[in-house]
Design a protein that fits this description.
single chain; 427 residues; alpha+beta; two-stranded parallel ribbon; extended; SWIM-type domain-containing protein; Znf_PMZ
Length: 427
């Protein structure tokens, strides 16, 4: 299966790569970017381009329906999602209807490759893996890539022999199977005979044939891993789900894939010389400016981000689900007729300092905001307390008096020895 990043390159790939069992696919990211490119084309500024929509529809809404169409595993789901797109925007539906559905929609994928990928992530991973080697000349690049392949071949073969020898399936495939086993708890099977079952999952019904390894949802046929509906039927027949996984996911297939040894080459000085003319490297011309290594990012893509942009998303309040405000200004959490909070009194640094006129003013303002209290009675109590504090406090300007002398020291003052006179030396 060959994946291209844009629909307009499909014809070029078909002309170059031809074969009876060769299938060409279109990457979903390329379709989405192509739709954005049609919508924001023209002499617009960057801000104007970002504010435009995809064929008259918000970008996020289009992406959601677009991916729902691409992930449709059967014809019924595909038709349902296409009708949603048609009701929302006729131009977007016409654009998708003009594309070959067997290149980007799972409902039209063949069942032989056991692959339901919609992106070329495997190619992107390999492209980043050889990132350092791509900067080298041709011969050095090939030698470095070969050395990397030799290392990864040996590492995977060693890991398979030492760590995975007792496992029936590869660890990642086993993890996906365990997830389907967990989802199978919500499925209810009804046997009809000859390995055919009727499975009810939520509001949908599916037909499973465990003898032919088929399910009407087509996930089992596309991936080679039993889906949750088929696992419920396999449990009814006391069959292990691991036995129904495609053979390409077994440890034996993994061992055979990395079982070959890539032989190293001798030193270039020992290579046999040929009678032909020597191959010279092309002339290198250094271009002005810094060499570009990153791809050109689309204006709608978020630079160095791992999440989708919230551009065009209508925000809602998390409390009342309103679009007029957010949680901070929600009238449910913050009603307008609520009693306002009491204002705090100013903090005095010296607790013995008498209250000033400003303090009394703040106290009166605070008291008037307390509902259901007698303000005159409270003011009289506070004024009495302030008078007591004024009477008991010490004036800070008066000097402190001497401490009383101890009777023991006063009775024995005469017994103290007379200090000796210090001699005076004249130099």
């Amino acid at each position: 299966m060959i994946m291209s990043s844009a629909p307009n390159r499909e014809q070029n790939f078909r002309e170059i790569l031809t074969g009876e069992r060769l299938r060409h696919g279109t990457v979903m990211q390329g379709i989405s970017s192509h739709m954005r490119g049609e919508a924001i084309g023209g002499g617009l500024s960057l801000n104007q381009k970002l504010k435009r929509t995809v064929l008259g529809v918000k970008t996020v809404v289009v992406d959601q329906i677009l991916w729902a169409i691409a992930r449709s595993n059967n014809m019924a789901t595909w038709k349902k999602n296409m009708e949603k797109m048609k009701e929302m925007n006729l131009e977007a539906w016409a654009y998708l209807d003009g594309l070959a559905p067997n290149t980007w929609c799972r409902a039209f994928f063949e069942e032989l490759p056991k692959c339901d990928l919609l992106l070329n992530n495997s190619c992107e991973v390999f492209n980043k893996w050889i990132l350092d080697a791509r900067e080298l000349p041709i011969l050095s690049m090939l030698r470095k890539i070969k050395a990397q392949l030799m290392t990864i071949w040996y590492t995977n073969r060693k890991q398979c022999e030492d760590d995975w020898s007792q496992l029936p399936l590869c660890p990642k495939i086993k993890k996906k199977l365990d997830k389907n086993i967990e989802w199978a708890k919500s499925c209810h099977e009804c046997p009809t005979g000859k390995g055919v079952f009727k499975v009810m999952s939520r509001e949908n019904e599916y037909v499973v044939d465990i003898l032919k390894n088929k399910c009407s949802c087509r996930r089992w046929q596309l991936t080679g891993i039993p889906c949750s509906h088929s696992i419920a039927c396999l449990r009814f027949e006391r069959i292990k789900p691991e036995d129904k996984v495609a053979a390409c996911y077994s440890i034996e297939a993994y061992r055979l894939a990395y079982g070959h040894v890539i032989m190293p080459c001798r030193d270039p000085a020992e290579w046999q010389k040929t009678n032909g003319p020597p191959v010279e490297p092309p002339k290198y011309e250094k271009k002005a400016g810094r060499k570009k290594k990153k791809r050109i990012v689309h204006p709608s893509e978020k630079d160095e981000g791992t999440r989708f942009s919230k551009h065009g998303v209508i925000m809602h309040c998390s409390v009342c689900n309103s679009t007029e405000h957010n949680r901070r200004k929600c009238t449910v959490l913050h009603p307008s007729d609520r009693v306002p909070a009491l204002e705090k009194l100013p903090v005095r640094r010296n607790l013995l300092q008498a209250p000033t006129a400003q303090d009394s003013q703040w106290t009166e303002m605070t008291i008037t905001q307390i509902p259901g209290e007698d303000s005159s009675h409270t003011c009289s109590v506070l004024s009495t307390l302030f008078q007591e504090v004024e009477a008991s406090q010490v004036t800070p300007d008066a000097p402190p008096g001497p401490l009383p002398e101890c009777s023991f020291i006063a009775s024995r003052r005469d017994e103290l020895p007379v200090p000796r006179a210090q001699p005076v030396h004249n130099f």
